[in-house]
Amino acid sequence: MKYQAKFGHMAFAFIFLFQVSAHSNAELPSATQAKIDDYLSALAEQGEFSGSVLVAKHGELQMAKSYGYANLEHQILNTPQTKFRIGSLTKQITAATVLALAEQGKIGVDDKVSKHLPDSPDTWSEITIRHLLTHTSGIQNFTSFKDNLKYERLPSTPKQTVDRFINMDLNFAPGSDFGYSNSGYVLLGYIIERVAEKPFEEVVDSLIFKKAGMTDSG
Q: pTM of the prediction?
């Protein structure tokens, strides 16, 4: 858990999949549950794991147990009902939303960013939606900025976040290299709102969650 030392305040959610024979209807053995519990309890005591574990078989919950704290500051324990931030898993949802809008003809993956953000800088003139989707835009990753920690727990609108990197030099010419960029995906979310003329969460709920039968992403 190399991120634990750096982000000690964060809780991590894990899903453990227990595989059994397709012809077996046996429940998860208590001895196996005990082994899982012993293993994770030891990690939790060492400060290397904080989160919830769910084990299911054929859609039936076999084990649900939580370890560590949801909030260290206030000593709030994790429970199987604790909602965890899903972090960069949101990128898949954002990308799917862009493609759903593309199917509706509201955006094109080869559109220039400037088409949807007329006030974007000249340095972004060759950046396309595809570049943002594939981390090849060259836009600097705002989560790597030295001052980022002070913003981590503060509310910020998409525009406020975009303003933090919009005037930064590019790391490379668009399409010439790969550079993981949270900035690109914040920018995609911002463009989604402008294209759909609705808040990001409403667009995702309509185009992704409801169609997938999802009532929760946390």
A: 0.75
